[in-house]
């Protein structure tokens, strides 16, 4: 099992001390929609939601997918055993919402509000 630890984001803000954990070994699909990036695995689905114009939302959803997929694939598939020393990958560790936006390349219609939420279902 390779866990990804993702900070909970609601209303364009990180919720302190609240995290989502998913087993990235079961990653099955990634979908970019008009305003969301949806990443799914066995028994879990993560939905990242974005704000802005229609074009901004789509660009932000694509940016999140482009940022996350290579990181997730490092912990999934044939080379997964090379990551045995890392039990949990702490995504966005210690970052503020502004730092996450900058790292991923997300545009905001206002100040730091381009990435509005991540939810687990």
Description:
- By secondary structure, this protein is of the alpha+beta class.
- It has one domain.
- It is built from two helices and seven strands; from the N terminus they run E-E-E-E-E-H-E-H-E.
- The mean pLDDT is 90.
What is the topological layout?
Elements lengths: L2 E8 L2 E11 L3 E6 L3 E6 L2 E7 L3 H20 L14 E3 L6 H8 L10 E6 L1
Parallel strand pairs: 1-6
Antiparallel strand pairs: 1-2, 3-4, 4-5, 5-7
Termini separation: 19 Å
| Range of helix content | 10-25%
> How many strands appear in the DSSP assignment?
7
Could you say which structural class the secondary elements and strand pairing correspond to? alpha+beta
Number of helices: 2
Main beta sheet strand tally, sense and closure: 4 strands, antiparallel
Poorly predicted ranges? none
Shape label: globular
Q: Output mean pLDDT.
A: 90
Order of strands, widest sheet: 3-4-5-7
Round the Cα radius of gyration to an integer and report it. 14 Å
Count of discrete structural domains: 1
Q: What fraction of the residues are assigned to beta strands by DSSP?
A: 35-45%
User: Element order, helices and strands?
Assistant: EEEEEHEHE
Oligomerization status of the protein chains: single chain
């Amino acid at each position: 099992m390779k866990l990804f630890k993702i900070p909970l984001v609601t209303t364009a803000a990180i919720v302190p001390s609240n995290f989502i954990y998913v087993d990235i070994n079961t990653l099955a699909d990634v979908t970019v929609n008009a305003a969301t990036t949806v990443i799914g695995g066995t028994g879990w689905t993560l939905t990242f939601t974005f704000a802005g114009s229609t074009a901004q939302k789509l660009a932000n959803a694509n940016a999140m997918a482009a940022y996350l997929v290579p990181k997730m694939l490092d912990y999934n598939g044939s080379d997964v055993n090379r990551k045995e020393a890392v039990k949990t990958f702490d995504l966005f560790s210690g970052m503020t919402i502004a730092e996450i936006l900058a790292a991923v390349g997300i545009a905001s219609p206002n100040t730091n509000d381009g990435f509005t939420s991540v939810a687990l279902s």
